[in-house]
Write a structure and sequence with these properties.
globular; 0% strand; mainly alpha
């Protein structure tokens, strides 16, 4: 499971357009597709959406 604090930090920078999706995925050591899946969960379920990610 990706560390929640790290995801939230990178997610915030991505939403502020300080990093690209490619850069954000690379920082989290995951594919762009996986990042998109995490973003959907995070935006719909918040913190708990990330906690249930495998």
């Amino acid at each position: 499971m990706v560390r929640t604090n790290q995801f939230e930090r990178v997610y915030r920078r991505w939403k502020e357009k300080k990093v690209t999706q490619v850069e954000a995925a690379r920082q989290l050591e995951m594919s762009e597709r996986t990042l998109r899946r995490y973003v959907v969960r995070y935006e719909s379920e918040g913190f708990w959406g990330l906690r249930t990610s495998a």
